[in-house]
Amino acid sequence: MGDLIAKWLIAVAGIGGCVLSIVGIRDQVGLMRRGVRVDAEVVGVREHEDGDGDMHFYPIVTFTPPGGAEVRGESYARINEYTPPDTISVVYDPRRPESFGEDPNLFGFVLMLVCSVGMVILGGWGLLT
Description:
The chain is of the alpha+beta class. The protein contains two helices and five strands; from the N terminus they run αβββββα. It has helices at residues 2-34, 107-128, and strands spanning 36-49, 55-63, 71-74, 87-93, 96-101. The chain has a five-stranded antiparallel β-sheet, with helices on one face. The longest helix has 33 residues, at 2-34. The two termini are 14 Å apart.
């Protein structure tokens, strides 16, 4: 019985991963197609230490799209390379200016999709045998 539950959990987690990665790919493709690049001002940096003791840095930026209200949000940086009042270039979606990033990138979401499909296949295969 425990094996059956584990197989179902793997399959369901894989399906959830597929859905999340497809949504992420759709958002990144939208940024690549419709995205507008603007300069954003770094107004702060939020630091976060994960469970392994690794530090992650989230530059807090503001920018104003043409004809729009000021947008404030976080980006992500592997190292703490930004300090206020630095300026960085971001790409935002004119339909949803709060959806922005430094460089749209599909790699992480495609990798997540491949792994999730593998989980669905392994879980489904286990359910069939």
